[in-house]
Amino acid sequence: MNTLNQTKTESAPQTTTTIEPVGFADNFRLNGYLRVKGLIDPEEYDAHLKNLEKEGKGRPDGQVRGARVFYKDQKFEKLLEDLRPKIEEFTGYKLYKTYSFARLYKIGHVLQSHKDRVACEISVTISLGNSGKPWPIWLLDKDERPVSLTMQPGDGVIYKGIERTHWRERNTFGDCSQVFLHYVNQDGRYSIHRDDQKRDFACTFKMFNRNIMFVVQPRYR
Q: Domain ranges in the chain?
């Protein structure tokens, strides 16, 4: 196990990484989240996401009204795999990748409080760029207390996506480029979701002008 000042691994993006002095993988397992500074060099990924948005690619976002999302884009999928050894080191788990997901938040966007689906057992949210001050992400810690975390471009938060409730309040800060990388524990009950092969079935309908979503997930023994 390396020291708190993490240097690049052979297969990961070439950048120097530091983490908060909170105990590393043991602390991640205990608290369910870990903020990592300098996880990647974000410039090329920020430019790539903005080009995707400019070209009208992706699809409308069912979670953040007015946003577009980019599922399993080739460049972000490579990042997902390249960072896997480093995320394994931070979390203490051997991981399978499931999928990448990118979104460009804008003024007025809100991310409602939620937990992720089972393919997101270990999730990483990485800031690619901000047009203003960093827009914080909130989550509930193991004692159900709200914690606010800010990220400079290149910083990331690793968290247990299906355990830690998380959200973002209304964006008053400016454009915020974000990529999400999702993994499952190779030795865990959700390993069948490797490469997002077992997609959840979800349907959405409107009731009283609000979107209601039902998700059907596989049963686990």
A: 5-216
Give yes or no for a contact between 99 and 196, defined as CB atoms under 8 angstroms apart.
Answer: yes
Nearest residue to 151 via CA among 36, 64, 42: 36
CA separation for the pair 191, 112 (Å, rounded) = 27
**pLDDT averages per 10-residue partition of the chain, 221 residues:** 36 46 76 96 98 93 91 98 97 97 96 96 98 96 96 98 97 96 97 85 43 41 27
Instruction: Tell me if 78 sits within 8 A of 48, measured CB to CB.
Output: no
Q: Which CATH architecture has domain 5-216?
A: Sandwich (2.60)
pTM, 2 dp: 0.80
Asked if residue 175 lies in contact with residue 106, where contact means CB atoms within 8 angstroms, the answer is yes
Give the amino acid at 59: R
Are 138 and 112 in contact by the 8 Å Cβ rule? The answer is: no
Distances (CA, A) of 27 to 30, 32, 175, 181: 5, 8, 32, 20
